[in-house]
Amino acid sequence: MFDLRVLNKEEIKEVLNMNDVIKIVEEVYRLKAEGGTTVFPLIFHEFEPGAADMDIKSGWLKGYDIFGLKVVSWFGGNEKKGIPALIGIILVLDATTGTPIGILDGAHVTGMRTGASGAIGAKYLARSNSETLLMVGAGHIAAFEIAATLLLFPTVKNVMIHAPLHPEHADRLAASMPDILREEFGITVDRGVGFHAVRDLENAVKDSDIIITATPSKTPLIKKEWVKPGTHFSCVGADMSGKEEIDPEIFADARVFTDDTEQCINVGEIEIPVARGILKREAIAGEIGDVVTGRVTGRESDGQITVFDATGTALLDLLTGKLALDAAAEKEIGTIVKL
Amino acid sequence: MFDLRVLNKEEIKEVLNMNDVIKIVEEVYRLKAEGGTTVFPLIFHEFEPGAADMDIKSGWLKGYDIFGLKVVSWFGGNEKKGIPALIGIILVLDATTGTPIGILDGAHVTGMRTGASGAIGAKYLARSNSETLLMVGAGHIAAFEIAATLLLFPTVKNVMIHAPLHPEHADRLAASMPDILREEFGITVDRGVGFHAVRDLENAVKDSDIIITATPSKTPLIKKEWVKPGTHFSCVGADMSGKEEIDPEIFADARVFTDDTEQCINVGEIEIPVARGILKREAIAGEIGDVVTGRVTGRESDGQITVFDATGTALLDLLTGKLALDAAAEKEIGTIVKL
Lengths: 339, 339
Description:
The first copy, chain A, has 339 residues and is α/β, with parallel strands linked by helices. Chain A is built from ten helices and 16 strands.
């Protein structure tokens, strides 16, 4: 029998901080660029089209000797029953013996690694003097994106939040963001950053240096003509075929990076621009790991529009999960079960 | 957060008995034949060819409102380290809300459901007056096959065990089988069944009514000319491309059933006979569930040779796992963790 550590959301919160997760996510991108990882095929099943589905993402991080999976289910009708719609479980195993190492709640790990991803896209592609962040979407992921971006951009002074379907969610998030940063992330922003809910998306886009999109949208929310030169987009919402957040025409002359080019072409923000021929496959500048390792130049000029399409892989969940498990072992946090 | 029950091998042994598992496995075959199940694509990865691999099997049992997966790793070098080579974990989730129900050690569940599978193949296809069982293979699975077959065939008086690579394993298993039945399965065989290790496979085959093969062989062990009319084979060993236990020519005039025809053609005992054209796809009589539901006749005459090719699906692990979780909940066995 094996000792297996089980970490729930509260325990994961105690042991993970965003600065460390940002380092780990960068490390995953670097490893992937260097060929030290394998992403296994995605399993996806709809129990009821548009209402209930599940997916299993899995992979292997050779350099860290771990493999494993994340199973995520989404049941739209859950909220009526007082159950979260999105539920995830991560299983981390030792790739030298096949023994299980730990089981983690997937929701907080997903939030942390996705927040880090969007911000890392900005770190490598946005202008370093960026002052204005526009967060499109005010759901579960939004606070993670804002927290990670504020950590990486001390220059950011103004955070705008736009919620396309439920403007009141943006109001609520903007009002509580300083508390969330302090209480959920242990971050105190003492440089006078303003958080504002915005209803007029067009004017917000025109004023933004960095735009992060994290919505379940299936039609473009942001028009090309609104985008000022030099804007950076991190698109993290599109992770399933048909999802789309920004005008496909933006891709006609943007410098575009992905987290996993094959997966992004299949299910990411670039799915539709590639399918329509607006973005040629060979015009994709590379994966973000190529920029992290310095093999490909990120932004080439201050006026260039850059896009990072982040669809997410199990690799991010597994290494972030391992980071949490190691920290929890040191602090003796979590439940040990004998399996 | 959710209450999740975790069951290790000892706890699973306390709550599962072979008679109930046989019923559950038959129920899975029936459901599958009636279209109440979905098997998701198999994920398979070799870390080191021939030395270390892992697979993820997953699926959905609509009628029982559960879905989930089993991850199994095999690391050949583990035994030197004092770790089992084969390690499995089963995760059962609720298919109406996506919430996790339980996590189970996979080894005992796999043994129980695989033992039940081989015996159910014999129940529906072997002659009902069968007296002699030949078990080919004396590894982890053998005792499960023997236990389940003895439960279903009160007529069986003679059990021969052959271990192709390590004859001493067959000696050991034959000597300890009465104790194993009593201690591991709670079965007392008081009808004078004899357990014999046999080295001469040819003569053993000639004497057998039911032959169950559960080896990792990649070349046929049993020749066609040894097989007497009326013999039944349950082949449970071949579950990966290239594995093969019996002469492909046996399939030329046998009545053949599968547990999942697509999967068997890809990775089962029929892979090679189908690839070579010895067994035509359309000559496969059906899936075992078709016999369980009465839609297809099993054995057609006393002299016919019958084969059941059982590759195993996650459906078996999930419903057997659910049976164990329900029994454990009733008896308050296992560890509850909050995830």
